[in-house]
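Per-record layout

source: Anisodus acutangulus
name: asparagine--tRNA ligase
length: 613
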Amino acid sequence: MSSEQAPAVEIPAATLSKYTKRVMLKTILARSDGGLTGQRVVIGGWVKSSREIRKQPVTPHPAAAPQVVSPKDVTCSEVLQSRIPLLRSIMKVFGGGEYRVREKLDVVIQKAPPPSVSILQVSDGSCVPSLQVLVDSALATPCQVMPTGTCVLIEGILQQPTVQGKHVVELQSEKILHLGLVDQSKYPLSKKRLPLESLRDCSHFRPRTTTVASVMRIHNALTWATHGFFQDQGFLHVQVPIITSTDSEGFSEKFLVTTLLSKGKKDDQISSTEDAGVSVEAIQASIKEKSKKVEELSRTDSNKEALFAAQQDLKKTNELVSHLETRQKAKSGVTVETRKLDFSKDFFARQTYLTVSGRLHLESQACALGNVYSFGPRFQAEKSESKKSLAETWMVDVEMSFSELEDAMDCANDFLKFICKRIVEGCMEDLQFVLKRIDKAVMERLQFTVSSSFERISYASAIEDLRQVAGKRFQSKIEFGVSLTEEQESYLVDEIYKKPVIIYNHPKGLEPFYVRLNDDGKTVATFNVVLPKVGTVIRGSQSEERFNVLRSRMNELGLQKQQHEWYLDLRRHGSAKTSGFSLMLEPLVLYATGLNDVKDVIPFPRSFRRANN
């Protein structure tokens, strides 16, 4: 039998990114066999590291004719004086001032720099590994392409590595399409192995590091897993307002939203009818900061527009202080602190805040659309420098109509298992990097969350369990009616139950006004999901659907009825049982990456005394 010739295997072409006309590096580096060699591609990215290799000089062939120097360029006397020291000395004596002595022929013929190849490790943020790129000095000098952070857009041919190592493919450059140069003396990432703490001061550059890039990809996967879970379960994604006139929690620290403190405002915007003030001391402190900024900008001429704007800002602030001091003297015995802002003249004609939670607004949507969720920023003006505290955090808010506390706990349980499974399945490359560089237990922790059953205990049971611990002294006293500390929660999940724990039915004094009062009159229908390492990541509750009970609770806490009239309307007209929860995304990213500070897992962290850009 005659054997048939095997058909040629067609190598698939590298996939272009549709809107940038380049190939993402992950499509090249995802193949461990180097199967894309020989293809012409365009890649773009930033140089992470580099080295230079000098080319070996080409030895001329013996038969090659010697290079002839034109007599027009070099005279016989110059040849003689460059080779015979005695004649050179004689020529210096007799040449006088008019004759220019050339000491050596290589002064006449300037030497070109020796040819070399720059070997770059280029990353575009699409994956953990970098692509090795070879750039001949004839295309671009090493000093242009080698500095860390240089942006390159290069066309070339993929080939087998010239030097065997960890790379299975490299790019031989043929064209430099774009070159974004770097000032190494000022570029913050030019130093190697910078600690995460120092990177917080240059959050606009830190995604270029391998660690932060991996964290951002895991962050992205958690976001899409969140949408995937709720969309699969028939929830509708709706938006809730960031600016609100409602105190959503009833006792949390809030950011006030106002335009009344804008520079150069008139006298009639300061009155004594509302409940917020501004002190001369605060503005004087601001003047010191603005003066420092003007001094810094004055030292350089790099940004004259910024200097002019800073000077105008300082001028207006000085005018404001002068104006307030004059009014303070005019009104004997009345200080600036006691004067109030007239919010009827504000932008919204009322007092408004940045939202702390979207649960109340989301409930109004659930009472019409069924099961809904929202994903967005939430704000708390808590003056804390804790590793788990942010002024601006991203939160998933969930609300379900015709549901009770048990339903919300079931949903939260399934949701956490789903997204942890998605991370394990979809971010293996980044998790392997985390496993190697940050936390060796991260994979085991995620897989255990997926496979384990969450322990459900009441708040009262948790207190009793902690009281029975022998040989352990907690920093805070364990007593009913006080919030569990991070230390106490960690002990419950790490030492007592050794698994995720759901703690439910907390004392009513610890929870917001809108949660449902239990039959004992002391606890409310709430729950917290506590995970190992990071503590509480989900807070949930069943809402109070009984109008009279809700109004009594608001009176008890002294809340302003006008702020919450719209919420009470939901009880007056077609009230339904609803329950839901809020998930804080940043602690969950800590859980999936092994990092310890939430400021390292959000692109632009906002925290107490820190908002750099």
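summary: Residues 68-72, 101-106, 263-276, 332-339 have pLDDT under 50 and may be disordered. The longest helix spans residues 304-330.
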